[in-house]
Structure formats: C-alpha cells, structure tokens
Specification:
The complex is a heterodimer of chains A (386) and B (273). Chain A is α+β, with helices and mostly antiparallel strands. Chain A has two domains: 253 residues, Rossmann fold, CATH 3.40.50; 112 residues, OB fold (Dihydrolipoamide Acetyltransferase, E2P) (Beta Barrel), CATH 2.40.50.140. Chain A contains ten helices and 20 strands. In chain A, strands 6-7-8-3-9-10 form a six-stranded mixed sheet, with helices on both faces. Chain A starts with a helix and ends in a 7-residue tail after the last strand. Chain B contains twelve helices and no strands. Classes of the chains: A alpha+beta (386), B mainly alpha (273). Chains A and B meet through strand 6, helix 4 and helix 6 of A and helix 7 and helix 8 of B.
Chain lengths: 386, 273
Amino acid sequence: MAWWLRKAGIEGETRVQFRPVPPAMTEAASLRGHTLDVLGLGVRYGAFTALDNVGLSVRAGEVLALLGPSGCGKTTLLRTVAGFVRQTAGRVLIDGAGIDDLPPNRRRVGIVFQNYALFPHMTVAENVAYGLKARREAAPRIAARVAELLEMVQLGALRDRRPAQLSGGQQQRVALARALAIEPSILLLDEPFAALDRSLRLDMQIEIKRLQRQLGLTAILVTHDQDEAMSVADRIAVMRRGRIEQLGAPVEVYDQPATLFVAGFIGTTNRLPCTVDGMARLRLADGTPLPVPAGALPPGPALLTVRPEQLELRDEAGPGCFPVELGLALPLGGQTVREARLADGTPIRLTEPRLGAIRDLGARAFCGLAPGARPALFPRPTPEEE
Amino acid sequence: MARRRSASELSYGLVIGSLAALALVVLVGPILIVLATSFTDSRSIRFPPQGFSFRWYELLLDEVRSRQIHRAVGNTLHVAVVAAGLATLGGTAAALGISRVAGKAGRLADALFMSPLVLPGLAFGLAALMYFTLLGFRPSLELIIAGHLVVVTPFVLRTVGASLSQLDPALLDASRSLGAGPVHTFRRVTLPLIAPGIAAGAFLAFMASVDNVPVSLFLSSARTDMLPIRMWGMMESTLDVRVAAVSGTLILVAFLLMLVMERLTGLTRRMRG
C-alpha cells in the first residue's frame, strides 16, 4: 500500500492482516497455557439472580464463547472473572489458584471492551503503554514492547494518533494490543466485533483467532451472535437466565441441542408437535409415524426439533412422510430455502438442492426426514414453561 | 400555498429577529453605555459622554486618591481567589462523591449542595451575618470567604458533575484491568478527563465571588470593604465617574478571561451541560 494512504489511515477499513507474532512473544511462556475454572458461581442483586451456580473450565489455549440473549448473565460472568463484580457464591480459579480476593488490577486478566474503552486523551502508543507504565516497567522496555505490539497489529504508522482519529477497526486493534501488552493470563473479549461492519468483522474474527492460536492464549468471548461463536470459539456455553444450558463444541451444540432453548437459539430450527404413544413410538400431530427413537421420553405430547437441512421433499408418499403445502422459495447461493406448511398449518422451513426441479408455489408434496438425520426430541413445554 | 408558507416564514423570521434585537438592546446596550461613559471628560456620570479622555482611568490608578478602591479591589481578589480555590477543591470532591452514590442519597446530597443557587442571596447574607455574630465572630475577610464559599461551590459542582456524567465507566474498568490501582486510575484517567470541567467551575466560581453583592453586603465592614459595595457607595454619594471606569475594567477583564477559558475548556459548551 502506498505510504501516503497508510499515513492518512485510509487502509483502515480494507483488509487487515496482522503481522506474524514476533518470536520473542510466541516463546514467552507467560501468555501460554493458562487455565480458568469457574466453580459454582452465583451472583445475586437483591432478589434478582444474575448467575446461578455456574461452573465451567476453560482449557489452556482454548477460546470459550459465552452465547446467549441479552440479560442471560454472560456479561455478569465476564465481569465476575475480571473482578468488577463480587460473587455471592462460588470461586474463580486461574491456573488452579483462587483469585476471588484479588482486585481487578491484580488479576492479570486482559479485556477488550465492547466499545473498546480507549483512553481518549492519550495517543495510540500511550494507550498501549498504559498497563506497562502502571506496572512501573523500565522506559526502554515499555518503548520496545509498544513498538512490537503496534507492529503486530499493523498500527505502527498511527502511533501518535488519538483514538478519535481512528476508524472502528483500528480502534479495536489498539484495544487488543493494549490488552495483550500486560501479558494477560486470560483474555476476555466482550462483544468485540459488535460495532464493526460485516465484512470487517469476519476479517477481525479470523485475525484474532489466528493471533490467539499463535500466542496460545486462553480466551473467553462474550457474544449474542451465534455465527461469531461458531466461527471463533472452540467450545460454546449457551446461557439463559443466569445458567449454562449447554456447554460443548459448536458442532455438538448445533447437532445435539441439550434443551429446547438451545435448539431454538442456535441456528434455524423447525418445531414439529408430536406425541409419544404407549409403545414409545413417535407420531406427528396428523398421525404419521416418524422413524425417530422416542424411548427416552414418557408417553405424552412432545416437540421434535428438526434443522431445515434434515428435511427433504418427495413427490410420493412413503413411510415417515407427511403431506405439506409449499410456500415461497428463497434461492440462497448453493441451496434453496423453502417455506412450507403442514396439514395442520404448522409452518416449516427446509432446504432443497438447487439442481433439482423447482417445485411450484402452492403445490402439494411430501416431506420426510433426510437419511441419517438425527433430530432432537423434547417433552412439549406447557405455555408457562416457554 | 407557496405564498402562505413564505408569509409564515417571514413572520417567523421577523419574530426571531426582533427578539434577538431586543436581547441585544437589553443585554449589550447597558455595557456599551457604561463603557462609553467611562471615557467621558465631564465630572459626572452622564450619557451621552462629554468629550473623550482617559482621566477617570488615570484617577483610578492613582495610588493616593483611589486608595479605598484599591483596598476594596485587593479584598475582593483575595476573597475570590481563596473562595474559588476552596470551592474548586470541595466542589470537585463533592461531585466525585455524589457520582459514586447512586439513588436517593446521591440526589439528596446534590440538591443540598445546589440549594444556595435557589436560596435568595439576601436571605442567606442576613442569616450568615446573624449566625456569625451569634457565634461571637467579628467581621473579617475570612467570614466573607466562608459566605462566598457557600454560594460559589454549586458552580463547581455543576460543571464537574457534568464532566463526570460524560466519563465512560468502561474507561475506569479498562484502567483497573490493565493493572492500575484506584489512585493511578484517578490521576491518569479520571482527573485529566474532568480537568476542563474543574477549570470551568473554578472560573465561574471566581467570577461569581468577584461580583457577589448580597453576601458581601451583610458580611463586609469598613475594614473589609468589597469592590461591588464600594462602587455602590460611590455611586450613591457622588456619582463618581470612576465607578464607570471600574465597570469598564471589570468588563474588559471578564471578557479576556472568558476568551482564555473558552480556548482552554469550551466553557459555553459546559455551561449548557
């Protein structure tokens, strides 16, 4: 890129690739291999329970995403780990040692804040140097480290700018460099990509993931964006009402949702009302028997959650097939998303391969489970439980 | 249609324009008149001024013949500097405390600190005089400082409070997470970011003390003469043109200070907040 473009900061919102991490930093043992354990953590504000007996372990070098709707407790959990919120029950351990009694400034937990929280009265370099100065490191060491970090996030040319003169993506890179400067044992990312536009967000997700891998950082990512959690995290903890509903690898959480809430929150899902009969067989509301093992559930009303790609359309009736009336077809790249209705009016969505013949709107067809599909089955909740 | 809209636009412009003109006449007019009068060559305050001279300003600077005025100026500056200084310290501390106390207690403390702005100054001046006399104090500059402190602290509280409410709490969290303790955080983050609010508050407190009449009226004595009181006295007895010269000087000094503060802190922006 031309020097004058770089000088004007115009390269900011185009593709950014971080420099390879300097060898001195990858070898530094201080960043690598830290673990975080949260044991039976509870936080109450008066009658309101923000966190209820939360337990999780983040392995060394792992990114764990806390995913959930707003108010689910994920930010409270992050702030408790950082030391800004004092828990009413439970413990937080880093590398096996309790940090519950340490104030936030002695926990060595790096945070990238949602709005970046850069100090507006300091330059980029001063922001990055802040933590090192607070620790009273020697000036030459601070200077060398700041230069190294700014080089890594490709901001060396903007070191004397104020945060207000930077684009959103540049501000985020400063925030990241500033958090890494203190060699944190755990990196906390609080919705760090929420303020970036879509194309830049993907770039930054890839770059942060790459950096985290190279440095061997242990990180927690708070997000309400499931795609972000899926793409950046090694494991996902889905939270709701102060509790962890499910903790597992992204594929696991997607394919085998532990609860109805997880099934609905992650990805798109169809909810088909069914009944389990006395012989542990599953029948759709219209009576169609479905080839899904239902032995784990007691007889009674149930809900089958099926991903759109686990359903397929057929022209003829067959075992396990139920009639549907076809609705709109939305061609999305390689697949067509098709809306349809069951006989009782329940709306569903399914995906069709683009290569097949396009069926007409309003046509009747039959729908069945795709071969190998393993939909999840739950007892049907009462209206109060929902 | 177009005609009607242009008519309404015209009347709107007319109303706004005449209001602005009225404001100029009422607010700026007197200042111009007093300024013009201070350069008169005649022996009494009268408008329009007769001739042009600096003689009243020269007389004002005369150490012997304007000794009483000089002493009043000295007292006034002494009181204003000390009162504004103490108010800046106290008001800033109060604003910091109030910003940390959520809910009713914080609002109550804020209302208490702000109440001198609402309380009639004359009532407070009289009350302070009676109270201090009751306690057995004799009139002194320290008492005037104490009185002024009460009425100028709200200015500092207001401007610093406005700065603090604009301070992003995430910045303080960020500082803590980077390893800085509360003291380091206050010195390196909080203080630099609210400094313009503190400076604006100090300036407003200083100016409010300099031209405070009601409190000084009750608490000053012949020995502790204050400039506004002395000016009123001169005006009452002799129509002394030096009063106009003093006013002219005050206007000039206030204007220059205002320019400096605007440069440094964006004062007008802060007063709106």
